Amino acid sequence: MNRSIPFVGLVLSVMLVMAGCSTPQPMTSFTPQDFDAQMRSGKYEPKVDNFIVVFDASSSMNESYEGSVHAGHSKFDVAKDLVHRMNVTMPALPIQGGMTAFGLDPNVSKNPATVVYGPTGYTQAGLEEGLSAISMPGGTTPLGLGLTSAGEMLKDARGDVAVILFSDGKENTTTTPAIEAAEALKQQFGPNLCLHTVFVGNTDQGRQLMSDLAGATDCGIAASADGIASSQGMADFVEKVFLAAAAPKPKPAPKPAALPQPKITWILSGVNFDLDSDVVRPDAKEILKSDIKILRENPQIRVEIQGHTCDLGAAEYNRDLSDRRAKSIKAYLVSQGIDENRLTARGYGEDRPRFPNDGEENRSKNRRVELVPRD
């Protein structure tokens, strides 16, 4: 009996080592890339208006995954992890989303395909909640019915559509073949549909079927679990499926050329007054017509009417005379409909000659009225 003890201990040790070796390693850590910031910056815009995730929860998905990423975990757990990674990588998009699962364990759902989310306005939390409802694989593999379920969910969809299938590519052909279901989707949506596949399997046959399904539409992507599990791989996948480079923002229209400003300083050199008179003569009224027209068409203009004289006579008298002449012009402009609040009148006498007072011709030019802009 004593001799058998070491043998029994050896057997138990081997069994423990084997059990330890069969325990899968934890799934690799994942840090999603931030597309939200790039959406806000205007780099991207949504590529699709609707999407449906089709998830394979059949019994074959309970088998171990033999790829280089997450090896030893069930294909079911690997596929769920990939959907989660896609979801946390996707930016907040104003699109419709949904998810259907086929092949669930009969204790979870007796339906060959079961809608677990949507279709509804996409939210990260909503899709995550739907994913948690896919709790146990165990049924058959009606892959074609999964795609048919996606078509039914999208019956009222408008715009561009993405269907994303996560499966090992094993098919139960007693139901609608997957290729036929993919063709039916293509007939339903035409060029607006892109069917993408993510292969989470171990067989070349399954990989080929998933590739053929993606090829049923001109824009389909055939991806694999190993290819999209990393942060960069998933970012590339999300970008290709959901995002498009935003159209360049139109350059702002050039500001219209500034309209030429009206002339707002006039020297009414042709407006003469009789000697020692402040009465506006008929010939002066004729000259003022063009100035009145400018003032009427440009109500923003405010002016000071400035009266000036030559040097004949006393300076104080000339200041008073020029002031009366300026006020005469103001009164006439008001009589022609110009708001008096836009006008002020002031006489400057002989203080501001434009010409030397060296003869009658130049003196007559100094006997003038000017309209000068003011604030």
Give me some keywords for this one:
6-stranded mixed β-sheet, rod-shaped, Rossmann fold, alpha/beta, 375 residues, 60s Ribosomal Protein L30, Chain: A, disordered N terminus, 17% strand, 12 helices
Topology:
Layout: H1 4-22, H2 36-40, E1 44-46, E2 50-56, H3 75-89, E3 96-102, E4 113-121, H4 124-132, H5 143-153, E5 161-167, H6 178-189, E6 193-199, H7 204-214, E7 222-224, H8 225-228, H9 231-242, E8 243-245, E9 266-268, H10 282-297, E10 303-307, H11 315-335, E11 343-347, H12 360-366, E12 369-373
Parallel strand pairs: 2-3, 2-5, 5-6, 6-7, 10-11
Antiparallel strand pairs: 1-8, 3-4, 9-12, 10-12
CATH superfamily of the largest domain: von Willebrand factor, type A domain
The order of strands across the largest sheet is 4-3-2-5-6-7
Compressed to H and E, one letter per element, the order equals: HHEEHEEHHEHEHEHHEEHEHEHE
Structurally, how many domains make up the residues? 2
Q: Which spans of ≥5 residues are poorly predicted at pLDDT below 50?
A: 1-5, 7-22
Helix count, per DSSP? 12
DSSP E strands, number: 12
* Distance between the amino and carboxyl termini: 119 Å
